[in-house]
Design brief:
With 360 residues, the protein is an alpha/beta fold. It has two domains: 112 residues, 3-Layer(aba) Sandwich (Rossmann fold), CATH 3.40.50.2000; 232 residues, Glycogen Phosphorylase B (Rossmann fold). The protein has 13 helices and 13 strands. A seven-stranded mixed β-sheet has the order 7-10-9-8-11-12-13, sandwiched between helices. The protein has a four-stranded parallel β-sheet with strand order 1-2-3-4. A two-stranded antiparallel ribbon has the order 5-6. It is globular and about 60 Å long. It starts with a helix and ends with a helix. The structure holds uridine-5'-diphosphate.
Length: 360
């Protein structure tokens, strides 16, 4: 019913012969109404699983009736294409980042450091210091919001190495696992700090598990020995101003010594792409689209078993001790992102697909 109502609203803006790309399962219900109105439809799934089993069969059985009339399908990995689509028009197109967006355009070190101090995630905030950045319209923006929720005994010292994972508060991102690995390690991560950062859990309306997962992380943090708690920081970022939120993410990514993405599953993993674009050394699980982004030892480090907490701590600790390796992985990551994961590549692939559909 919601799909039908949304389709009626959408049909006020599109005409027969137009081409509409629908993203993700949430929009699948729009497809039949668009087709009836003579609109060509591409359905793009940003999620998927490498293995197909009874659960995926049930999910597809639910979605399939909405997708019968779709003209073409796009997936992020070949492994995500379901077997029932073999006779249909399917393209595999990896996602990309926009290097000119607030999250990915250049931000100098001083500006990034001031923003991170403003957020309470680095010590040394100067009196009357302002966290400035250039807004997309060319004006000067000031980061004036702070994390909506911050669990931290004191900001990490200016010189302490910082490990960062930025993700939604979703069980599959395993924020709790990152925290436990870090807290359990008594040698390789000594002296380092860990920041686990995600969006305001009241702000992501299609993420119902967010508050529960964040609350679980806070509870775990309170139970840690004080020595570990002092080196672990949990923050929820305000979502009220999308550009300010993006600049906060960018500043944190740029100021991190190592970026972690210890996901248990991952459709593609744009946080990894964003870190690679910023020449950061990444330690990430070898799951889903992360496998396509990183070749182990060249563009970052891959954790073969995402549940292996000791291995995670060892890989992150190794990077903290080896500046040469961190720099070479950061450089490898940057060139990989430049060659493969910017939006010009995606635009070319999409326009090739649209040309085929327009000619059909
Ligand atoms: N993100 C953000 N603010 C946050 C946490 C995450 O803007 O507080 C962004 C992050 O920079 C990335 C996206 O959310 O662009 C997450 O995409 P990803 O593919 O990594 O994972 P998904 O959330 O789609 O599973």
């Amino acid at each position: 019913a919601v799909g039908e109502a949304n389709a009626r609203a959408l049909l006020r803006s599109v005409r027969p012969g137009d081409l509409v790309t629908l993203h993700d399962p949430q929009t699948a219900g729009l497809a039949p109404a668009l087709h009836r109105a003579g609109v060509r439809v591409v359905w793009r799934s940003h999620i998927g699983t490498d293995a197909h089993d009874e659960s995926t069969d049930r999910a597809w059985a639910f979605l399939r009736p909405f997708l019968e009339t779709v003209d073409a399908f796009v997936f992020s990995r070949t492994q995500y294409v379901p077997t029932w689509l073999t006779e249909r028009h399917v393209a595999v197109i990896q996602p990309s980042i926009d290097p000119l967006s607030a999250k990915n355009r250049p931000l100098d070190d001083d500006a990034a450091a001031a923003i991170v101090r403003r957020m309470g995630l680095r010590a040394g905030r100067r009196p009357r210091e302002r966290a400035l950045y250039r807004r997309g319209d060319g004006s000067v923006g000031v980061v004036h919001r702070e994390p909506v929720s911050l669990h931290s005994l004191a900001p990490p010292p200016a010189e302490a190495p910082l490990i960062l994972q930025i993700s939604r508060w979703d069980p599959l991102k395993d924020m709790a696992g990152v925290m436990s690995s870090f807290a359990a390690d008594t040698t390789s991560l000594d002296g380092a700090h860990l920041a686990l950062v995600g969006p305001d859990v009241t702000g992501v309306t299609d993420d119902p598990e967010g508050s529960r997962v964040f609350a679980g992380c806070v509870e775990l943090w309170h139970r840690l020995p004080p020595r570990s708690r002092a080196r672990i920081h949990l923050a929820c970022l305000p979502m009220a101003d999308a550009e300010e939120n993006a600049v906060m993410v960018s500043a944190l990514q740029r100021q991190a010594t190592v970026i972690a993405q210890k996901s248990l599953a991952e459709g593609f993993g744009l946080t990894v792409t964003e870190a690679m674009w910023k020449s950061r050394p990444v330690v990430a699980s070898a799951v889903g689209g992360i496998r396509d982004q990183i070749q182990h030892g060249v563009h970052g480090l891959l954790l073969e078993d995402p549940h292996d907490r000791a291995a995670f701590a060892a890989e992150a600790g190794g990077l903290l001790r080896d500046d040469g390796l961190a720099a070479s992985l950061g450089a490898g990551a940057r060139s990989r992102a430049l060659e493969q994961f910017l939006d010009d590549r995606q635009l070319c692939q999409q326009s090739a697909l649209y040309q085929v559909l327009a000619a059909a």
